[in-house]
Amino acid sequence: MGPVAGAVGRFLVTLALTYLGLLAITFCIGRLIPVDPALAIVGDRAPEHVVRRVREELGLNLPIWRQFLIYLGNIARGDFGISTLSSNPVMTDIRRAFPATLELATLGTIIGAGIGIPLGVIAAVRRGGLADQLVRVMGLVGYSVPIFWLGLMALLVFYARLGWVAGPGRIDIAYEYTLTPVTGILLFDAAMAGEWEAFANVFSHLILPASLLGYFSLAYISRMTRSFMLNELAQEYVVAARAKGLSEARIVWRHALRNAAVPLVTVVALSYAGLLEGSVLTETVFTWPGIGLYITNSLQNADMNGVLGGTIVVGSVFIGLNLLSDLLYRLLDPRTRAR
């Protein structure tokens, strides 16, 4: 039990320090940005005594270290403050917005990993060939083309010109009030309610932005898969397997890919976290009511409670996925458990 207890203790200490660092950074951002929270609440034309009273109620007249302790206490209770944009508790707004981002990023990751991993394997097996060159060009375009431009072009072609998909937004207004949200993930909610017309409408809105995010995820995942597979195909066990007469397909897909899957877990997890936190431009272009659009609107309206609350939630998800990928890495690779 000694090594296990030590590993659990180190894990908890790492988690606490990482989260404390995240909170410290968000607190500093809130204090360094030239936006007075009191003025954001009462307005620029409010009398001085009103502004002073609001500052006292918010604790802005206290020493900075006491403000930070109060900030930590509020976050521990799940109190991110009141949004000056919506007049709702920030946590209420985030609970409404985050499922939309979760749905979008999850489908994008499924597309990116489902296509990117096989493409990376094929590129590694046919190194220097046409397939390898095509995969590398796809990756280069994915890294180079601005996502907002690609989103606008996709809307112009597939929505405005061809009419293959629904336009911006998450669901048509005709279904918005007939579908009762339960989980906030509208595909699940529509399927559980048996509202298949609403399901088709939600999917039609979702597929284009999810495919766009999936393409950028694909560019990263296929590149890393190719690199991992090239390393595995150069190992001695692959030479031995070929000498034994095993088929090339079995060597590649059952042996080499299985060993490459260990670091790929981390790659896919980081890609998923990146889509959860980095879909701001995509959500803005497609008017997708997720956490990215919420943070953008809050920032444009000087709603720092909303900005910091959304940043903390996204950072917490990123930390959680990093720790989960590390745990899966240890479970899949026995060598890491022996250290």
UniProtKB/TrEMBL annotation:
CDD domains referenced in this protein's UniProt entry, alphabetically: TM_PBP2 (cd06261)
Annotated membrane topology: Multi-pass membrane protein
Gene3D superfamilies, per database record: MetI-like
GO CC term, one of those recorded: plasma membrane
Keyword flag NADP: no
Record-linked InterPro entries: BPD_transp_1_N, MetI-like, MetI-like_sf
Annotated ranges, domain ABC transmembrane type-1: 98-329
Annotated family: Belongs to the binding-protein-dependent transport system permease family.
Protein name from the UniProt record: ABC transporter permease
Biological source species: Salinarimonas soli
